[in-house]
Write a structure and sequence with these properties.
By secondary structure, this protein is of the alpha+beta class. It contains 1 helix and 3 strands; from the N terminus they run E-E-H-E.
Amino acid sequence: MVVTTVHEGKRDKRDNTISQTAWLLHNFSEDTTFNCDGASNDELADALATLVGQLMELGILRGVVGTGAP
């Protein structure tokens, strides 16, 4: 399986004096909506990965979100 990077972050927009472990998320599917009363684990995981990816793009978190398995 081919892995494609979707989001990547360097954490360059915040205080850089604190070291931070990089996030590494795989099998990403963008999902910005879910039903709070009945979402599946897969749906919640995709929504969380979408949020983490957006925080990476803002430079708040460091890491990589990609499609495919590691």
